[in-house]
Design brief:
single chain, alpha/beta, Aldehyde Dehydrogenase, Chain A, domain 1, Aldehyde Dehydrogenase, Chain A, domain 2, 2 domains, 7-stranded mixed sheet, 6-stranded mixed sheet, 24% strand, globular
Length: 497
Amino acid sequence: MRRVTHWIDGKAWGGVADRTGEVFDPATGSVAARVDFAGQAEVDEAVAAAGRAFATWRQTSLAARSSVLFGFRSLLHARRDEVAAILTAEHGKVLSDAAGEVQRGLEVVDFACGVPHLLKGAFSENASTGVDVYAIRQPLGVVGVITPFNFPAMVPLWFVPLAIACGNTVVLKPSEKDPSAPVFLAELFAEAGLPDGVLNVVHGDKVAVDRVLSHPDVRAVSFVGSTPVARYIYETGTRHGKRVQALGGAKNHMVVLPDADLDLAADAAVSAGYGSAGERCMAVSVVVAVDPVGDELVPRMVDRIAGIRVGDGRRPGCDMGPLVTEAHRDRVAGYLEDGVAAGASLVVDGRAHAVDGEPDGFWLGPSLFDHVRPEQSIYTDEIFGPVLSVVRAPSYEAALDLVNANPYGNGTAIFTNDGGAARRFQNEVEVGMVGVNVPIPVPVSYYSFGGWKQSLFGDSHAYGPDAIHFFTRTKAVTSRWLDPSHGGVNLGFPQNI
């Protein structure tokens, strides 16, 4: 049985784990590996390695840091197909989708390679007579990064390259469900010349997470996951004096106005709703059809769903793979019964969808509900699977109110050919990322990713300019080089004259 273990101080951990977990191949249902779970001792070992490395890494020149990042970027680009294959084997997403994940992660690495420019401070000469004032950005120290199962490569790449570019060292705790890709990334960083201890990877469950959150030498924590866990991460981390950014769950709405191109809207809703089996925090999970467009839009969506090929992501032609675990598949399938019982119309039942794969895989085809009401669980809950709901709204105002009343505020989209309506929507909607005729508005790497309301705890978004703010502290320096006539003792408050 293949073993996945921790990466500490530049090498694979050599100890014996007290606890381990199973790693499945979701397309077959079989156990493909066992992953070591870290206890307090293993987390402490990783933090100690990161602490030792910080003393020298923080003094490493920006040119040298950038050189390591360029080297890592080159290696990752050259071996992106290997990373994609690892993602498909452990998460289940099809190879083309996995390749897209790697590419979007590479874009953040590209941004991090510009660290000499990103860390430039500010300088004001002669702010007061003979006095200069300047600001510099300095690293925090050891930072923790806790990432989810749905993007085992991309989400670590949102944080790790920028954290180390800023001079920090990292303890990464990825999901135990698909742990191999983060270790592969750590190996590539080492090959690129990253010093031992700058990046460490520990696997495990809540035991490891809690130790990262409570360890006195961890200065900050970045997290992506569900809203209940994000709230826990934020509250626990800040209680221990840490800077925390915790990105939570989502219920992303796609508003379709009557003047929209309905073929474009149907393509977008189906693509964004069922890509990666709906296991995306930016997946469209609610289509808000503004009257009278619903009666035309839903049949178009049904036609497109019928053409989706569900199966093993390694087989040519498959569009959607399995869900990540059997337990998660069963939980998502349970919402189909809940929706029917609550009175929603189950237009497409994914349990009957044909599958090109082994019978024991964790399969659930794309499902579509119509005439969903806001009080139903299929609307209120973050299902995180291939279940798409259509809600009918009588007007633009009603659709906007529906989106703004939702406790989540991660991403949203509007489909329309009316520029005025689109501009009004982007101004009025209370959501952090907005798409106009774009169903998954994930920002490019030189902007920042993050939601509003219960989709984000903390004041910093991921990657982009916000990451530079999050992973550094600003120090203001006021300096004067004295001449013999400095003026003597003066107990008055300094005046800038």
